[in-house]
Amino acid sequence: MIVVIDTSSLLSLVRYYLPFDQDNRLLNFIKKEIQNHNIIVIDEVLNECKLVSGKLVVKKLNFLLDKEFLKKNKVPIKTDNLIPPSPKKFYNLVDNTFKTTNAKRLNSAQFEQQKKEFLESADARMIIYLLIQISKNSFENLILVTEETEGSNDLKAFKKLPAICKILDIEVKTLPELLESYNDINLSFE
Q1: Cβ neighbours of 42 (radius 10 Å)
Q2: Residue 158 burial by CB count (10 A; 0-12/13-18/19+): exposed, middle or buried?
Q3: 70 touches 116 (CB < 8 A)
Q4: In sequence order, which residues have a C-beta less than 8 Å from that of residue 86 and are 6 or more positions away?
């Protein structure tokens, strides 16, 4: 199983799980999974983690700031030059299927700006990374982990991660669902 993890899930991990991880079992497990590239952290997610919630994620997962750890383990995955498989089809989906009803209120220049921002976002880069892995006929079970819900509750021009993944047939789990699927860790709250 290969997991691409979103900023929201890393934030949940450090806020709601690690405070109860008295023996660092969960922390060490997550670190090992990142080292082994079973949990993928892309560059834009790491950049977001350095900016959100007072840098809580990188303070608690301080190995994500350790230059030697990052270099040795090739973390984060670089995504700035990724090209989606079937680019024409993907960009057609972006222009038509991934749009929300809010996008209809934008003029063409505003939409193009929103589209540019979306394509540079961690969300789009995680999706493109997963599509590339799927196109390589990977036999791995590929999963996107996010705490986002499918329903739109903001005024953004593009759908949220779970809704886009549903369109693309990419499996999505929340952090609790992911942790439940690991047999290697036994979490208990005493």
Answers
A1: 24
A2: buried
A3: no
A4: none
Could you tell me where the DSSP H helices lie in the chain?
7-12, 25-35, 43-49, 56-60, 67-73, 87-96, 108-119, 122-135, 161-168, 175-181
Res 146: pLDDT: 98
Q: What is the mean pLDDT of the chain?
A: 94
Domain ranges in the chain are 2-181
CATH fold of 2-181: Rossmann fold (3.40.50)
Q: What is the pLDDT of residues 137-158, one digit of tens each?
A: 767 899 999 999 988 667 889 9
**Partners of 99 in beta bridges:** 158
pLDDT category of residue 184 using cuts at 50, 70 and 90: confident
Integer Cα distance of 104 and 72 in angstroms: 46
